[in-house]
Amino acid sequence: KKRLMEGWLYKKGKGVFSSYLWKKYYFKQGTGGPETRSKLFYYKNPNTFDVLFSGYIDLERASSIHPSMEESKEFAFQINTVDRDYYLCAVDEDDLNFWLAGNLNHSYYYTILFV
Questions:
Q1: pTM
Q2: Which one of 32, 75, 92, 101 is most buried, counting C-beta atoms within 10 A?
Q3: What are the distances in angstroms from CA 81 to CA 77, 94, 111?
Q4: Radius of gyration over every alpha carbon of the chain, rounded to an integer in angstroms
Q5: What is the per-residue DSSP string for 57-79?
Q6: Are 8 and 91 in contact (CB under 8 A)?
Q7: Could you give the percent of the chain with pLDDT greater than 70?
Q8: pLDDT tens digits for range 15-62
């Protein structure tokens, strides 16, 4: 049975002034039709599901997901899409493995690269 991706991660900002900031978000894979199942929504507050999401990562547009070589965070990984590279960080190695091996490789949308 496929498990949904869900849990706390840190996400690195993308702007000039926020590119060095890591903010904690609750990530949850969409559970609706095919158009939402390929999206990884993130929330500041997990009690606001399906109402107030902060953003999403479109996994259908992802080309790779792998541990990050560019970040100094120990449990960082990245999701590369055609539009943007997302830098995420798990709280520990088990959590990182959950996101990389336990969930992300169940999708046919992208390729997992392990280093």
A1: 0.79
A2: 75
A3: 13, 24, 11
A4: 13
A5: EEGGGEEEEEE-SS--STTEEEE
A6: yes
A7: 77
A8: 766 667 899 999 988 877 777 778 899 998 888 766 678 999 998 888
